[in-house]
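Encode chain A's predicted structure.
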Amino acid sequence: MKQNIDWKSIAEPLDVTNVYDPRHYIRAWFAFDRTDTGVILHCNMANGEELDYHVDVIDVDVFRMRMNPQGIIECGSDMLVNCEFPSVPFSVQEQNDRLIVATPRIRVEFPHKWKVTAYDHPVPGKGHIFYQESTEDRAYGPGFEVPPTGFEVSESGDYFVRQSVAIQPGESFYGLGEKFTSLDKWKHEIPLWAVDSGNVSTSRSYKNVPLLLSSAGYALFIHSSFPMLFRLGSESSVSYSIHLRDSQLDMFLIYGPTYKHILQRYSELTGFAPVPPKWSFGFWISRAGYRSRQEVEEVVSEMRRRGFPCDVLSLDPWWMGDGPWCHYEWDEKHFPQPDEMMAWMREQGVRTCLWIHPYVPKSHPLFDEGKALGFFVQDKKGEVCNVMEAFTSDKEGLAAVDFTNPAACLWWQGKLEKLIDLGAAVFKTDFGEQAPIDGLYYDGRNGLEMHNLYPLIYNRTAFELTKKKFGRGLVWGRSAYAGSQRYPVQWGGDSYSTLNQLACQVRAMLGYGLSGVPFSSHDVGGFDYSPHFFDDCFHVDFNESYKEEVKDSFPKDEVVYARWMQIGVFSSHVRAHGKQAREPWTFGEEVEQISMKYLKLRYRLLPYIYSQAVKSTRTGIPMARPMVLEFQDDPTTQHVDLQYMFGDRFLVAPVLTRDGRTKVYLPAGTWVDYWSKAVLTGPQWLTIDVPLETLPLWVKAGSVIPMGPEMDFVNQKPMDPLTIEIYLPVESEKILVEDEDCKPIEVSYTRNGSQLLVEVGAAPGDVEIVLVGERIQSARIANVALEVTQDAFGSRVQLDGRSGTNLVLGLESL
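Encoded structure for chain A:
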């Protein structure tokens, strides 16, 4: 039984009578006070009421704007890493009909007749508008298509924020979390309300982030967890509106103009992601679910026998028996001596991930324990709220742990710590979207405010425990909110096993990255059956669909799995998971070999992947980068959302058709086909036909790609040899090869005509230099000639790199 909540009606604004009755918007300001951090404007609303509008300068390109007819509520934040901001130089001047607040970089003008306008230049009269509120989007007559910034008022007199902004011609919008629709949200209505998405083809989402990026060069971060609805040109082509089920607007206006700078600023506000453990970048294998210790050991043994690299095996809830869940106790009938099982797995180089969620079944003794301590979310009458959801509850329902109570967090962490002490390495923190809206939480916040925020504090509590135990934190979470990038990693939820839903997952991954989250994943192969399953098996109950006899009766899709595996390998994290078996060999010999090829390539690319991950934690830039993020000045990329950059060097073009035909856009520059070594120049569109084994993959000219040896699990071997692939060297390039808990290795080259000087810092062993796109004619160190070999991939030179390398290469064109 699902919780009877209409998410859409909660997220949408109230249907109030004053939509065309302009009384509750800001009309003008009549006085102002300067403060240490900005100004307070005293305003008149159209209904005659007065309102204070607070403006704070947070940085030279970040302004905070707040209003509340009941008075600004100053409070702490789970989203922001710091509510105290350093002082920033700014000026305030009243000029003619307006007040101007300027920093050394931008200025924001407040005309007496209200129309907040921001310019990309600090000097009045100079620069261009990048942001402007909408005040004149009128219907025919006295009403509005989109009323100006102000409030919607319920019949009971409650005020709800409405922020209205002008749309520039051709403007695109990005962000708002993990949405399974197109990357550009122009003409969309986007609710921000955590739900179990049910499938992955709509704007319903597990992960909502109130960060909206505009191609006009700015972003809005709405610092609130109350339900919101973004109408991005859906009600008018010249205005968009943000509706918030709260009386307080707390909005950060961030100027870029680049998306990369915006993500940097947003991360400074809400926190940079930490680097996940290096082993987490290996391959995860999972299933819904393994039912016994014998089955787990057979899968691990078969992985090693067949030569598949693998670092994590994830156990879904059946490690606790057949439910109801979650009580954090092993089913020792089917998983005897779980500590011995997990120790044996570690000997094979495989760590254990355990499925959990934040709810306790009311039929289990653990509920009585938590209730007696007051550790569950309660309603206003002091009764434990009931969480009803389809998969894990029994007829008595579930209780949600109240993570706003520090004692409840310690109690809950104690249950998990015992599992870690037995051998668990990480937790799959499933669900979290069902936080009861009728709740009154320990810290005084109500359910409407906490519903979206609950995923953040739930995952934080699990993450902080793993960090305490292992030094580096990690979860495998499904739900998230603003700030969740501080607690990686999240995956994309429950998709069907179709190519269309793979496309939706690609878009969601890219949109989530543009929402300030560097690390994310998705279920390789898709989680659920194809939708045809429910046509053919309409008589099967939802929970029955997890039974082995039902799973085995429905065919698998080899094309979907192979194409999904290729994209998984070029995502920040890769896990195969679904109701049916997701071990590569269960899809036949061809798919097994394809999977082997790409997983072995991923493990060889770990030096590149981990180095890019470290870079992401310092910049806020995602590992899977939308084309518009990397090539913002190319207008074509504005709507290209089915290909992406993996890091800053690989262009990845997913194949989403059964016949292997796909279109690819190459931006300006020179590109090297990773497989054929063919050189192409952009900008251009390509239509190509590729076999199932081929993922279209290009490398930017000039790139330096560090690679390691093949291995069965992360850190099985040192980076020996450290392979440095150089693609069509340009004038110069420098990278850092990062490794966990080790000093980074600096690699650089400088070109002088046909001569290339390559410098590599001290490495663990041999260094192999591979030149792609040109031929090495000669190689020497201090006038000592070195052997050069040639193969289909390129020219190679190998040498002892433990003392560092200064290598001079003589080049010739191919």
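Residues 447-470 form the longest helix (24 residues).
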